[in-house]
Amino acid sequence: MNCKSNKLRDAVVIALAASVLPAGTALAQEAQSGNATNLDRIEVTGSRIKRTDVEGPNPVTVVTRQDIQAAGEISVADFLRNNVYNSFGSARESSGSATGSQATISMRGLGSAYTLVLLDGRRITPSGALAGGAANINMIPTSAIERIEILREGAGAVYGSDAIGGVVNIITRKDYEGASIQLGYESPKVGPAGTTGSASAGISSDRGNITFVLDHQDREMMYNREIKDIVTGAGIAWPTSAYNSSATFSNANGTRSVANCDTFENSIRTSPTTCGFDHGATSANEASLRRNALLVNGNYNITDNTTMFFRGLTSETKSLGVYASAPVDNNGNGPGKLPTIAANNPFNPFGEAGTLYYRFTPLGTRDSHRKDTLRDYTLGLRGTTELFGGADWEVAANYGNSSQSSVGLNYGIGSTLQALIDSGQFNPFDPTHPSVAASAGKIGHTVYVESVNKTKGIDGNISFDLFKIGDRTAGFVTGFEYRKDALSQLYDAQSAAGNVFGSAGAGTNGDRSYGAVYFETLLPVLDSLNVTLAGRYDDYSDVGGKFSPRVSLEFRPLDSLLVRGSWGKGFRAPTLSDLHNAPSSTNLASEPDATIPHAGGDELACQALAAYRAASGNTSYQPYPVNPCNSGLQYTWLQLSNKNLKPEESTNWGLGVVWSPNDALSVALDYYDIEITNIIGTIPRALAFRYGDQGVPLYGVDRGPAITAPGGTVLPGPAQLIRLPTDNGAMQTSRGLDFEANYRYDTTSIGAFTTKLAWSHTLEFDFTPVGAGTQERAGKFRYPKDRAQLGLGWNSGDWSANVIGNYIGKHDSGTRATNFSAQTTVDVQASVATPWNARITLGVRNVANKMPQFSTAIGFPNYINTIYNIWGRTPYLRYEQNF
Which end of the chain has the smaller Cβ count within 10 Å, N or C? Predict the structure, then answer.
């Protein structure tokens, strides 16, 4: 195919093609008369039709291996988390999470379930620990990556119905010759050091090639006590919990602790009559993570027209998370049911019957040991045929298994503890009493969880030229996919029965089959105008199917100018977990929501308490263990799945312009518009609280005994368990602008300079929950409108240097606690190639040691760890030896 020449475009095509074409396929570049150049066509993320233009109708950001190395991050998860299109951050390995070893990416802030992660153009097996709803990018070995292509718009018609927020296509190394080893070390200002190591080798022949990559990463755990001075230095009070090792006693006459409650370890006096537990003294902030991975990529030319290819990735991580000793939130009668003590119990100093907010400390902290394993294999054939006048074809089988084995130490059986209290053989008010140590072994329980998500599938496609319009060729591709998905999350029998305190036991068992057929055609209707039509029908065995169309345009009025646009539909099926998950409990706050409107907390109890205070004049009266008027305190919620869920639906469209006036400069501006309806999720927790008190079906609130205030006024009992079902009906819109610019300046004396700017601006991010008004979130607390990154590079001979500026815009919801200023951090790096064929790199991330902003509007440890990190200034050293 002849095309008009653009030197910058041609250079990029050659570089990309060299890294993606299989062995035995030569890149043909032959000079033609005039300004024509004959280039082999390549496939770029966002379309299955091969073309000569890297810049097409789809906005794609290409991140090279050199870009990843320049950032100096220890893992691909850390690198992608800092990407400007990961708008409002995403999950990282966290010690305070049930899936603490996992990391995700969430393009446009829509959630990780809306970002499709591909490995060499095929979807990576979603994580079993994430209930099959998203990929765990912590499993991807950094050293195995050749480049990352980020499609910044939906592509349901191309890759699958759930590619709504965007696509991240991770291209692995292949066709590599030689060998190298790489060692890295980093030492952050806050937290432990991290180490990396990798070994790569590749061989090739006339018939094929094979590439091996071994990868290792190790980062130890960071404890909360390491950041206590930073948090309190920011003016944030170090929190305590009512669940104490010396039980907090509660009944209709109020909440009290024993007189000497502050003499016990980690028990802090919070008022003249109560103490709280310093859970941050023993818990960890970020979980440790140790990863070992092996990638094997190979190609073998069976004939001149047929190539066999294979990719195998096996990755394993081990993680440790440490939580404070278990709060007793289950007395054997289900989550949220607290232990009780009789008035005549020999250890009851109050002489009244009541409820206990107790923390089981004799066995120590809850330690969660997790082992994650990913096995992802693909074996296939690709080639050419004389059919249809000459066609390219490909067929492949793939198998994926993403599993997690989790062992949680030092939990307990609530019924056993309750029985010991009732029999007078356990003193919950004195953690040093001999009865506590004597009974610990009887009460203690180890939680076992096995999560497995398996995928088996086959896919294939064929592409060929349909016809010519003048001298322009219309391309066409059609294909199919089939897979079988199975999700299993199994808990030990006691956890599954809801008998364990300090743990949210639940299980899932479900499977489904999935099939899809698709097509895509490129129609060059004019010399300067291409139209691409695509369609895909996805069918799920349990929720049915739907057709997703897509149309895109690319208009080139000048060789240097591209105007592009696209429109498409998509849908996302409920996950197997959404449909089949067993009830699970979790501890979360009832946050305020102005669109309901709702002040947060326990509305029913707060209103009754406020009325009593006003009537009695006793403004300090507060008998509840959890202040019902404080929206930042936590309650126990029972999360419920729903077998009647329907798929979500989406509409995506966008417009953009790309200008490349010369070989050195390229500028792109794109607008995106996403609307998702019938969203699967839960309503605002504060509204669920209200619905539960009102008796709305599926909802409910379990309360303790009513409280009788002085004077005889009866107040609602404390909330112990609130039901939170999953349902359809919410709506989300996300609209914004992306700007990218690349400039290169070459000199004859001092080397070459490069500049890369990426900026993403959110114009609108509105969410409308079921039963509530629209929440305009763009620019509000937790939703910064702007993220940007500016990279400056220089290289001359053996030397190179990089400076990267990272910008996160302000976000503010109108209060002091939710007013977050913009943050800019700067990373620097220098590198030199040695005469012995090695490269030494020294760098510092966050040179100015910028800390995240702390706020009482955020749960402990009071900073947003999905957007910011707390490591501070991080020097690192990397050594690479090539052979």
Answer: C
